[in-house]
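Hi there, hope your week has been kind to you so far. For a while now I've been wondering how a particular protein folds. I'm sending you its amino acid sequence along with the backbone structure tokens. Could you read through the record and tell me how the tokens relate to the sequence? Take your time with it, there's no hurry, and the full record follows here.
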Amino acid sequence: SPKDIPDSVAQGSATASKVLALMSKDKLLTDPIVAKVDQIRCIGCNKCIMVCPFKAIEELSLKDRNVVQVIESVCKGCGLCEATCPIDAISLSGFTDEMILEELNAFSLF
């Protein structure tokens, strides 16, 4: 339902305060386990872009071809991109194959 003006202003101010607090820090802490793309192996099929629930993968144009790259500050290390990559050009450091399969099984429950 629509909010009245004072509520909208208060909500906007609270959001702005949160963003300001985040941006005023010297460092941003991110998840240590993120996907890594081997751009030499990547064929630019973009399947990983389509499955990423966090929109953490973007296309990158090189001189002779298109590949993908991970936006590390957005990646949550869920493993969907790694499981989808047809040529194993994406890896998650710190995870074993078993751990990734468990994570994917958890996603399939939803």
Q: What stands out?
A: The two ends are 28 Å apart (CA to CA). The beta strands are 35-37, 57-61, 66-70, 90-92. The mean pLDDT is 86.
